[in-house]
Amino acid sequence: MSIFISKKTKLIVQGITGRDGSFHAEQMKKYGTKVVGGVTPGKGGSKVAGIPVFDTVEEAVAKTKANTSVIYVPPPFAVDAIFEAVSAGIKTVICITEGVPANDMMKVYPFVKENGARLIGPNCPGLISVGQSKVGIMPSTIVKKGGVGVVSRSGTLTYEAIWALTVAGMGQSTCIGIGGDQVIGTNFIDCLEAFQADPATKAIVMIGEIGGSDEEDAAKYIKKYVTKPVVAFIAGRTAPPGKRMGHAGAIIAGGSGTAEDKIVALNKVGVPVAGSPTELPAALKELMKSAKKAAPKKAAPKKAVSKKAKAKKATVKKVAARKLAPKKQRGLKKAASPKRTKKAKK
Amino acid sequence: MKIHEYQAKEVFAEAGIPVPAGKVAATPIEAFEIAEKINRPVMVKAQVHVGGRGKAGGIKYAENAEAAKILAQSIIGMEIKGLTVQKALITEAEDIISESYVGIILDRVTKRPVIMVSPAGGIDIEEVAQKTPEKIFKLAVDPVVGLKSYQARNLAFKLFRDINQVRATTNILMQLYDAFWKVDASLVEINPLICNTDAKVIALDAKINIDDNGLYRQKNIAAMRDLDAEIPEEVQARDADLSYVKLDGNIGCMVNGAGLAMTTMDLVKRYGGEPANFLDIGGSSNPEKVVTAMRIILSDPNVRAILINIFGGITRCDDVATGIVAAFKELSPSIPVVVRLTGTNEEAAQKILRSVNLPSADTLDNVVKKAIELAGL
């Protein structure tokens, strides 16, 4: 098992005749991914690395029964490519493209949701379900089959963490990069939910960074629904404040966004945060040892549907309510697991 | 990208939002001429990319054109939070009855533009959020449906009672929302939105931040970039397609990938150094980029050692190595340079690097420690 992609993944590559598209189509095929087709308007009928090219996604899906698409087209056309893939019935779309305008993403995201599809990215390295399928640009040489699920907002930093796990003999189930943009299709919670439900995943590594409140929200989710051991790393402790965030943004995030806030939020729910990505394997081993001793007591994961439905409705009330949430939590959670946290933090 | 108040006001005016008459001046003479034309008392407002201009003495009232000229003389050239004021906006002074706050921001959680309004305007909105959060009203707008008049009106009623002012504010909110989309903004803000003694609602200040990803289709906005208001090294880096942020430390960093670059900085601090910069050479591994990156880092006199940390994926280590060798030939750095290259084409890279014989390290942690050691910290 794995999350989001597996042996059943039948992939088409949008932008397959471009420099990146053709190179990575071949890499993915070499890894064993079932790359059944590519799409470049005007290049239908040709082949790239033995992969048939179609003019439209609709045609590619009709002829190949593809269920997944990866997008390598340039930023001005990436959002249209997402619309096209979802309209053609593709249920999993991975957008690698960097530089997609956030406003375009705000418009395509509801369309993806309404059609019951999943979007990963944009501006992400994609994912590997080790030994089954690779979609995107992650180097396959650094992974090793095993039980650790890795989820990250970053690219090369993810490789660093995966490599550290591999060197320590801790293989991975699925490694996924969700992307570093402001508006992304799949967030930490979506991945945590999938990893929790995946029998092949025994433990989770989460790699976050400054900005937004995704890590804080993930911490709340972990507390409620995740029984598998989770360790984290947060990049950007030394990043100068305010350099990338507009000052009104800090208000929306309810005073969060700094590395320190995220580390505190994760520690409070018993997630150790490593001081360096190379220390993640040790932190995970430590946590798994202590987890064995304590019996799991968390509720079984409920589908996060209701949560998302709430998020959709977001109105004046919603945003106001969110501002209150962290405070409440703080009071409740003091006793979570100070022991585990201390050890991992050194 | 940030644009100046006077530029944001041009965008607002084009969208139909009422702004006071005014023009930007680069010299006291220009300030005099603009004020003379306005022929009423004016405000002289420093144009810099930082908040708190008023507190720093960058916003002053002038009774007439002569006074405007004298004030412009002192404001143009003054320093506010480390930035030199190059220009001042000369704008009609208003008699203020009330001050409100109006803003729209891209909210990453709801993935929607969120409109915020507050009757407590004219002061730092972060302060309002902290001390009196009940005075801020928010609405996450469905980006597909767009902002409806009734929604804008409901928010306008939070600011004004008078129906004419409510109507005027409703219009302003609708126009502001359109402008947000039209210019690919990540933030648009009017603080304060005032009601003057003529009972008119006017945008007294204007702030717009642009999503860099949208700039390719915003030629007019992109042309507004004020290179004088930015750090020269950061401009140089952007021209070379590098992501660079200057910091105050002593260890120069060259890394591929933003997350890894931040992590490298964090580890520099952790092991006893201070990062001199954030620098991401990006995914593609053009050797010329490495040379430019090296030049930018070396131009910082505080840097006592440089560490190069590359985890090859798309980035090929041999390309980076070629760039390092070229940089050594061209720049012959006098400070230690420590290298760690791992991943795609690592062996080829080691061979190329033999000609410059640099200290190297095998892991992320070790390259950082070594750089700090060689910097003599």
Radius of gyration of chain A: 20 Å
The residue ranges of chain B in which pLDDT falls below 50 over 5 or more consecutive positions are none
Tally of domains of chain B: 3
CATH class designation of the largest domain in chain B = Alpha Beta
Write the H/E string of chain A, N to C: EHEEEHEHEHEEEEHEHEHEHHHHHH
Helix content of chain B: 25-40%
Q: In which range does the helix fraction of chain A lie?
A: 40-55%
Q: Name the biggest interface.
A: A-B, 73 and 68 residues
Please report the number of helical segments of chain A.
13
| Mean pLDDT over all positions of chain B | 93
The chain-level mean pLDDT of chain A equals: 85
What amount of the residues of chain B lies in strands? 15-25%
Alpha-beta content class of chain A = alpha/beta
What percentage of the residues of chain A does DSSP assign to strands (E)?
15-25%
CATH topology of the largest domain in chain B, which one? Rossmann fold
| Strand segment tally of chain B | 17
Brief digest:
Chain A is α/β, with parallel strands linked by helices and 346 residues long. Chain A has 13 helices and 13 strands.
Which features would summarize this protein structure in a list?
heterodimer, A: 346 residues, alpha/beta, 7-stranded mixed sheet, 6-stranded mixed sheet, 13 helices, 13 strands, globular, disordered C terminus, B: 377 residues, alpha+beta, Dna Ligase, domain 1, D-amino Acid Aminotransferase, Chain A, domain 1, Rossmann fold, 3 domains, 6-stranded antiparallel sheet, 4-stranded antiparallel sheet, 17 strands, elongated
